[in-house]
């Protein structure tokens, strides 16, 4: 009987044990899948106030640039205040908003009364003109660097060509002048070629010849510096990126392991032609994903301010093999890039290169960046300070006028006294000290 009960128990408990084991394996499989060493695809964006504050100032600066460009397009570079609202609607200002806007920035816009017409006009201040001249000079001085940036940009393209319109839209980010089609492309026929496509009738820029000496990414220089200064293991730094997660970003144990494995993953250079590789394998897809990170990193490194809008990166997506969902892809690597939605009411996404900034300031500024930040400084100056400066100027002017008036009066009195004392003895003495009975000077009385 005991043997029968044991055999019966074994017979009925065996499937139950198998079921429990299957559920446990499924649970462990799901748990292991959530703790995978691959970086999660969807990440919640963590704000970094340093970059967001930078974009708040950029938003004001962008509106100021639109407005003073409108003033500069007018006759004599002045605009009547009566026509202010009507003309400002062209650049998106609401009714009665333009007048309040120019009063917020007295260091850039000046309202004055016309001496003849007796009506109010608006013009740019002397400080604003100085900033514009400084930016213009810096833009012209770095045209050789702009030629190098454009060459590297074309070398990252699959076909070695880019649409002229896409480059024109992003010309300010890459430090190209407004007339770059003539001052950069046509003036350097040994580097660039401009042609019309037969299929689409669009203009394209094509590189004449690829230079192997220029196929050097900015991250490679950073790796070499990290290796020499910090003595990091060569195997760890060979394919790695500088990762600085934003404050408040949660980094778990398995996420840290995934990032460590991703850092050691080899990839193809953005300047390397990958058309001959078989990209169907899982390993090749992983390499292409990391190559896309390196491409966006290099794209940001070529900009003047190490930032560019997400919408302008999307213009180069097809020619540089970038993913379709760029925002999700960049959020997957928040330690390398930062996306700010400040500016233009959240409709604009600006991508920053995190390693190039510290506390909202560029670590290695250039002359063009410095000139553009001058305008931001004028935007941030308080209107109260402008009123104080105006009062100081008025006070100095009144003081100078009083001083000049006093000098003129003293000069006039000295001249009058000198004329009255000509030929008299004791010149310069008081007339009360002279003898009234004396006949000296009778020649003048006759």
From TrEMBL:
<dbReference type="InterPro" id="IPR021099">
    <property type="entry name" value="PORR_domain"/>
</dbReference>
<feature type="domain" description="PORR">
    <location>
        <begin position="46"/>
        <end position="382"/>
    </location>
</feature>
<feature type="compositionally biased region" description="Acidic residues">
    <location>
        <begin position="428"/>
        <end position="446"/>
    </location>
</feature>
<feature type="region of interest" description="Disordered">
    <location>
        <begin position="399"/>
        <end position="446"/>
    </location>
</feature>
<dbReference type="Pfam" id="PF11955">
    <property type="entry name" value="PORR"/>
</dbReference>
<dbReference type="InterPro" id="IPR045040">
    <property type="entry name" value="PORR_fam"/>
</dbReference>
<dbReference type="GO" id="GO:0003723">
    <property type="term" value="F:RNA binding"/>
</dbReference>
<protein>
    <submittedName>
        <fullName>PORR domain-containing protein</fullName>
    </submittedName>
</protein>
<feature type="compositionally biased region" description="Basic and acidic residues">
    <location>
        <begin position="399"/>
        <end position="411"/>
    </location>
</feature>
